[in-house]
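agent> fetching stored inputs for the heme C docking request
agent> found them:
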Amino acid sequence: VPAPPAVDRGEYLVKISGCNDCHTPGYNERNGRVPVSEWLTGVAVGFRGPWGTSYPSNLRLTIRSMSEDEWLTFARARRLPPMPWFALEAMTDADLRSMYRFIYSLGPQGVRAPAALPPGAKSANPYIPFVAQTAKR
Ligand code: HEC
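agent> prediction call returned; pasting tokens
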């Protein structure tokens, strides 16, 4: 029997499924010791690969623009790498609802992340190259 949707379960799911790794500024640098009030505000450092350059969205703002029912569809949509959209696709409705309620409860904060860029486009923002490198001998 799936757990009923609840804000504290949403917090737990966000924490253990790695959303903060990309969507929360400084989360890795601070070993995950970032106050919940600072979670998921998006990051303006892009990931660049064959898909172009993608930026981890500000989920605090995203969630404000849709209802909980709309989130179920939105959360499962295909995204550019390295967003693990297939992890959200695999979540139960109850878990996605918990996530929605938790993220919504944080309130809006911060600014939108830059829009994704197509391959080859130059970016004014810093980016992390996401392409395998072979050491030169
Ligand atoms: C490895 C980095 C990474 C991780 C981990 C990650 N994301 Fe993302 N996420 C991204 C990037 C980059 C984008 C932008 C993708 C694009 O432009 O299509 C994104 C986009 C999204 C979007 C679309 C938002 C919008 O406004 O368009 C949602 C929703 C989302 N992520 C939710 C999550 C959740 C929930 C988790 C935790 C389960 C998570 N992400 C984990 C990198 C990540």
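agent> quick read of the result: Residues 17-19, 21-23, 47, 54-57, 59, 62, 75, 79-80, 82-84, 87-88, 99, 116 surround heme C (CB under 6 Å).
agent> awaiting further instructions
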